[in-house]
Amino acid sequence: MSTLDLLIVNAPSRPNIYGSLIQLSAIEVPVWAGLIACHCMNNGFSVQILDAEAEGLTAGETARRIIDVRPRLAAFSIYGQQPSASTQCLPMASAVCRAMKEMANDEGIRIPTLAFGTHPSALPERTLREELFDFVCQGEGVEPILRLLEVDWRNSQTLLSTIPGLWRRGPGGLPALSFGTSRNISDLDAELPGQAWELLSMKRYRGHNWHLWTAQREVEVIATRDFTVEPTGRERYAGGYASVQTSLGCPFKCSFCCINAPFGGAGIRYWSPENVVSQINHLFTEYGISNFKIPDEMFVLNRQHVLGICNLIDDLSIGARLNTWAYARIDTVKATALLDRMRRAGFRWLGIGIESGSKHVRDGVEKGRFTENDIHHAVERVRSAGICVGANYIFGLPDDTRESMQKTLDLACELNTEWANFYCAMAYPGSALHVQVSRERPEWLPENNPCGWIGYSQHAPECMPLPTATLSAAQVLAFRDEAFMRYFSRHEYQVMLTALLGDEPVQQVLRMLAVGKPKRNLLS
To answer: Which of 39, 213, 353, 381 is deepest in the core (most CB within 10 A)?
Structure first.
């Protein structure tokens, strides 16, 4: 009998998700794995995290590692690097589960498996019906996982029917919800006080290429034959990397977003500023980490929450050493004083959802009520505070045309922000858009096509965006890929980047462009 109660598995999805751009992508700390691990440990259970993503394991190697430790429960964390990136992580989690079950069967052992995350919570019945997981969580997953560890359900299957939010196989093997939905954690500080950093190899994680452009730099050194150390003359980015969550959920209802799928609807809950800064300071002092991501869907929203965090960072006198990025909206970056305060606390990037250059298109997906002038002024305020902007744009939203997409690209070039992400519209499971498309045009969804769930990955060769009334999926994808190449190859962009951040970021951009547009497996 294993002495390990719980093994939380983060499957190795990056090669499938990023393809040829993998070297530029971050290796993210698995936030939810760490939160749930800490919660279960605080309740007396033994826990390990197998981050196959960070270790660069294959599906087979990951399965072997699970077999070797033989946990009472193997829980697969199906969360992505972005709030909407859960579904694309399902294929590798499923592949690992399948390989593990085959190995276990050959060796005459049984390891129960569970899936939790945005995608399983959005489609629990379908996930349990189509995949090999024994259980699926609907909701945050905290309560069902803890309850499974507490009850002796192996000897009394009836106990499973008392666990809220747990989907299992009922009569005839059909998916069945045990007992209603699980509750959301109300007191985050008390019940989810932090991530189990001690279970992770923190040196394995790194930020995105653009995030590290504003990181502390150090001169690379080499050891000579007489064991002295000499500089090579080349700079490298320093400071490690970690993600610290400060809130859960979002109060907005953008139709293309699935962030609230695990939470049952719109809303937001916060960790206290004291809790957040305690984690940041622990990572800074104990692990030497200075590069941070705040993965909250909406960090710059509650002024007092943000100011509380900034003030406590200032009290520690570490803001000048930090390189932090977070998400914001056009209509939440109106206060210059707040932006100045954030910059002093080490916030060097804000990811801002502009989405479209067409107000008509933005209104069609309930993306705020702001004008193009509002967009320009917001970007100017952020940059005037000394904070770089990573602008996010989406092509192929329901009301998009070739002309409106061109307008979006023109706006992006006009704003000329330090970084830009170009996405295709996706009806992510858990979003209102997915419900609508499932009902009206199910053939438009990746899961109903040969590409399957990996088609939701923005960077994978199998990427399959939504068509619009006037554009095919292939046309939307081709425009997005061309927009990416055009934006970053512009002379105006590279001049701006050199003047602001030096030559190395531009050299990285040129290497990125040399990779070229990905080869598409399905669309032409």
So the answer is: 213
- Helices (H), strands (E): how many in the chain? 19, 17
**Is the CB of residue 350 less than 8 Å from the CB of residue 333?**
yes
pLDDT for the residue 260: 87
How does strand 419-424 pair with strand 47-51? unpaired
Q: Which residues, including other chains, have CB under 8 Å from residue 326's CB and lie 6 or more apart?
A: 293, 294, 296, 299, 300, 347, 349, 350, 351
* Cα–Cα distances in angstroms (integers) from residue 128 to residues 166, 232, 387, 451, 495, in the given order: 11, 54, 44, 20, 52
Record the pTM.
0.92
Report yes or no: 412 and 420 within 8 Å, Cβ to Cβ: yes
- DSSP codes, 144-203: HHHHHHHS-TTT-GGGGGGSTTEEEE-GGG-EEESSSPPPPPS-HHHHS----GGGS-GG
Instruction: Name the CA radius of gyration of the chain, rounded.
Output: 23
Could you read off the pLDDT of 390-405 as tens digits, one per residue?
999 999 988 899 999 9
Continuous segment of H or E residues that includes residue 495: helix 491-501
Residues 500-523 have pLDDT tens digits of: 999 999 999 999 999 877 767 655
